[in-house]
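Help wanted!
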Amino acid sequence: MSSDAMLLVAALRDPSSTRVLDDNGWTALIAMARAEQLIGTLAHRLEYEPVPAKVAEILADARINSDYQRRSALWEADCAARALAEYPGKVVLLKGTAYVAAGLKAGEGRHIGDLDIMVARQDLPRVEAWLLEKGGWEWVKEDAYDDAYYRDHMHELPPLIHKERDRMIDVHHTILPLTAGPTPDAAGMLDCAVALPIPEQFEHPDDSLDYRYPLPTSFQPGKTYILSPHDILCHCAAHMIADGDLTGGLRNLWDFHCIANEMQNRTSGKYWHDIYAAPGCRHLYASVMRAARLSHHLYGTHVYPRQQRLVFTDHFFITRLTARDGWGRPTRKFVRLIFYIRSHWLRMPPLMLARHLFAKWRTAKEKK
Amino acid sequence: MPVHEFRVQVGPAAFRIGSRWKQPVEQLMLLYGDYPKPDIADFTVRLDAPSLLRRIVRRQVAIDGDYMLPDAVPLPFDQALLAAEMGMNLQMALGWRRHLLLHASAVERDGRALIMTGLSGSGKSTLSAMLGLRGWRFMGDEFVLLDLVSGAAVPFPRLISLKNEAIGAMQATALDGTFGPLMQGTPKGNIRHLVPPADAIARMAEPAQPALLLFPRFGYPGAVREVAPGENFMRMTQASTNYVAMGEAGFTAMTRFIKSVPARAIDYQDGDEAVALVEKLWDRLA
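Answered by r_m:
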C-alpha cells in the first residue's frame, strides 16, 4: 500500500495510472481522496476510466454529492445576491463558489464549504448590515476580542452563519490578513473583476459564450463578479502558500493547476507573461511562482521552463502536501507542526502573536 | 501505529475498520463472523486514541473515518465496539448516495416490507428484532435503503443494537442468539448488540417492495392513527439523512414512497401488544 498521497496525485494527474491498482490500492486511494476532500474531483477525472464495479459506485456517489454541493453553493450565492440587491458596488465570488458559478474546470467535482465573497473595504458596514437585516445571517462569535480581532486585523469580517440554513458566509475585503507581510492591491482586484458569465476568450469579449450551467436568477449582469483571470490564480496561491498551514493543500494546488491551464488556453497562451502585473500579484509573485513549480511538479501544469525547476525549500512543501496514508490518516506530524507554526508566523509579527496568545489565554482562564 | 484490520459487508455497503487495538477487532470478528468479507471498501472507519495520554490513562476511543462529525465525543475503551458501530452508521448517514436513506427499521414477509420509523426510544429497533424471531425476515434496525429506480427497500442488516429494557426482553426471547458484550453507561444508556437471525444475513442482497409504514411510539396506551400524506412527508424527510443531497432523485423516490405506502402511527405499552397490532394492520392494509 502506498505510504503517502503521491498515489492520489498520480491518479489526478494521469487517470490511467489507476489501471494497475489492486483492491487495496483502490481502497487506499479512495480513503486519501476523501480525507483531502478531492473525492468529487477524482470522480470527474476517472469518469471515462475502466474501474472496478465497486469503485464505479463509489465515484457515482461522489458525483451526486459534488452536484449537490455545487447546487447549494450557487443557492447561497443567490441568497447573498438578493440580500445585497440594493448594493451598487461589485460583489465578487471567491474560491469554490466562483469556480462553479463561472463554469471553470477547477469547479468540476470540487468540494465547497462556506460562501466567500469580496467587496470594497469601505462598504463593509453597509454590506454587513444588509446581510444581517435582509439575508438572515447572524454573527457566529459573540466574543468581543475575536470580533475586534477580525475587524482590525483580518482580511474578512467575523464569519456569519445563516439562521435557518446553517451555512457560513465569509465577507472579504482583500485576500490576505492585514497583519501578513504582503499587501495585494485589493482596490485593483475589484477594478479588474470580471462580470458573470465570463467570456470564453478573454481577448475577444464578443465571442459566443460556452456557458455550462444556468446562472442563478439573482446574478444580474454587471452585479456578480469573479476575480480577473490572473487575480483568481493569485488568490489561490495566496490562500495556499502565503496563509494557513497547507491543510487542504492538495485540493488548493489542484485548483491552481486547473485555473492556470484553463486561463492559459483562454488567453491564447499569453497568460503567464502577464501575471506579474496583476493587482493580486503585488508582493505575492514569489508565492505564485512557488505554487507554479509545485503544481508543475505534482500535477504537470503547463508553465515556462524557468518555472519548472524546484528550489530546495519546495521539497518541504511537497513532503507536507503528501502527508497522508492509505487509511486517510495525517502523517509526518513534525512537518505538519512546522507548517502550523509557520502559518502563525506569516500572519502576525512576534510581538503581536504574543499579545494575541496572552488575550486568548486570559479568556480561557476567565471561562473556567 | 500497527493497524488491526477488519472488513465486513452489510447489505450493499462494504466497510474497512482499522483499529489501534486487537480487542475491538476480535469482538467484530466474532459478531460479524457469518457476514461476507468485501475486497474494496466503500468506507473506512478508524478506531484510535484521541490523544497520547488517552492511549495510556483511562483509555478512550475516538470515532473517526472517511466522514466525521467535528464535535464527536470519544468513548471509553470498553465501548470500542460501540465506537465501531457508530462509525459505520456515520459513514452511511453522511456518505451514502446510492439510495434514499431512511432512519428506520424493516422486516419482510412474502416479498414485501414493513418499515418502522421514529425517534430514538420509539422501539422501532426492538420491534424489528422481535418480528425477526416470529416469522418475519429481519432487514435492518437502523437504516432502510430505498432504491431510486424500483422503490424497493434494500436490507441493511447490521448488528441489532439493543438499549436498556430491550436487552432483557430480547435475552428472554432470543435464547440461542449471539450477544455482544454488555456496555453500560454509554451516551444512550446500556447497549448490547445481537447478531441478526441467519436468514437475515443469508438474504441480505434481497430487496422487498415496501407495503406498510408504521410510526411506533412506546409507553402510551394502545392506539392506531392514520398519518396524512403531508405529515408523513415532513416526518420522512426528517428521517432521511440524505434526502436534500439526493436532489430531484430523492424527491421522486420520497414522493412515490409516500403515495404508494399506507402509513399509521401506533402507540403501545409492551412488545406482545405491539406485535399483535402490527400483525392486524399488516393483514388489513398491506
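OP: Thanks! One thing I noticed: The radius of gyration of chain B is 19 Å.
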